[in-house]
Every structure is written in structure tokens, then in C-alpha cells.
Amino acid sequence: MTKEISIELANDFKELIRLNSILEEYCSLNQFPSKILFALNLSLEEVITNVISYGYEDEKEHLINVRIRSVDNWLEIEVEDDGKPFNPLEKEDPDVDAPIEERQIGGLGIYLVRNYMDDLAYKRNGGKNLLFMKKLLS
Amino acid sequence: MNILENKNGNIVILAPQGRLDITNSGDLEKKLLSLIDIGEKQFILDFRNLIYISSNGLRALLVGAKRLKGEGGTIVLCSMAEQIKEVFDCAGFSSIFKIYSTDTEALEAF
Asked: What are phi and psi of B81, to 5 degrees?
């Protein structure tokens, strides 16, 4: 059993492919059901896509740290980045009942994270964004 | 990404394979838009071999559907795995796209 993993990602979308295989291995070793793997993959892709797309104003390489651990019946996920301050909890929900003409392109990512995770918390600390997510394992 | 392409009458059937995420959803968007550019209007997106979709994948579909709306065309979807359907339901995409259980049912809908 690997209860806890820590992953360091560069601010490059291709890193999400590497992250996906690490998540697959972690979930398989811990015998988590496929819906947990799906929720993890989705939430981390949405959060990290946002960080890489909007977090940085320079062209330098930045590191994004992801830590995942299972505690009792919970999966705890932490994402830390040194991008500009961004609290995803303050983002307004998109209108998911609007007709197609009024649907906004984008803006759905954080909404999905809110629905796929059971708890979210955000903290800005020492020039870094820290997002905590919790998912009930069963 | 690998996207299988077929045609049945005037209906284009696209079957993306594997994962539709930030790294490859642009491929599907480009594929859809280039087919619309050459005059195609009716599409079935067959998701039988799709195992994952994020908001980036949904975005590609919405871009295509919005373009088609102005040109009298449409995209319908079929053969979706349960976990993909859940993303559609959550994002409210099940109400803007017609979703069929099989490709046969989707073809009959035209």
C-alpha cells in the first residue's frame, strides 16, 4: 500500500499525461474503484490546467506540487503553485441550464471540481496558492 | 489523438479513442471545424472507445455545436460510458446534446 504520494510537475500541459499514469498506478496499488481514479484525474486536470493557463505572467518554468494521501475513508489532495493569487472557490458557477447559444466556452472546469470533490479549501501562503481537496472513498 | 472517421450517407461519424483532455481536445476541435469548413453538417460522435473526458473535451464539442447551430447542422452523441455520461450530466451538456445508447439509434435519429 502506498498511502501517500508527492508529485512535482512543470507548468507544461504534457505533464498531465505523466500525472495520469502516476494516478492510475496509485489507485491500482490502493485498489480504489475506477470512479475515484476518474474524479482524481478530472479534478487535477481542471485545477492544473487553470494554474498553467492563467497563473503565470512570465515564460519561466514553474513547479506545481501535488500531494495525495489516504486517511481513513478520505482521499486528501493538495495542489501548491507559485502562480498569481487565485482562489477557485470564489469563482462564480456557470449557468449549466442555459441553451446552447448562451453557453460560455470554458468556465466549466472548476464547477466540475466542486461537484466531483466532497470538500475544497484554499489558502494563500508565502507567495503560493494552496488548494486542498477531499474525496470520500466510499 | 486518434479519431476514427466514417461516413454514412451525409452523416459523418467520428469516434475519438482513449482520453479527451487538455493535451488532445484541440485535435477533435480542429477535426470538427475542418469538416464543417468543407460543408459537412450532420455529425455523430461515437464515444464507445472514450474512457475519459474533461471540461477541455466538452469545450471542443461546444465549439463545434455552436458553429453548426448557425449553419443548420447538428452533433449527436452515442455509446457513452457511464463515467463520461456523469460528466455530461454534471456540466448540463446532456440537455444541449442528444445522446443515444447505440450508433444505430443515433443514425435513425436523422
From this structure: -65, 155
CB contact under 8 A, A108 and B22: no
A83 lies in which domain range? 4-136
C-alpha to C-alpha distance for A115 and A130, rounded to whole angstroms:
19
Chain centre to alpha carbon of residue A68: 11
Is B23's CB within 8 Å of A35's CB?
A: no
Set of chain A residues whose Cβ sits within 8 Å of the Cβ of B65: 100
Structural domains in chain A (count) = 1
Question: Which residues 26-45 in chain B show a CB within 8 A of chain A?
Answer: none
Q: Which domains does chain B have, with CATH numbers?
A: 3-108 (3.30.750.24)
Query: Which residues on B lie below 8 Å from A106 (Cβ)?
Result: 55, 59
Question: Could you tell me the CATH number of the domain that includes residue A96?
Answer: 3.30.565.10
- Model pTM? 0.94
Per-residue pLDDT of chain B (110 residues; tens, 9 = 90+): 899 999 999 999 999 999 999 999 999 999 999 999 999 999 999 999 999 999 999 999 999 999 999 899 999 999 999 999 999 999 999 999 999 999 999 999 98
CB contact under 8 A, B87 and A105: no
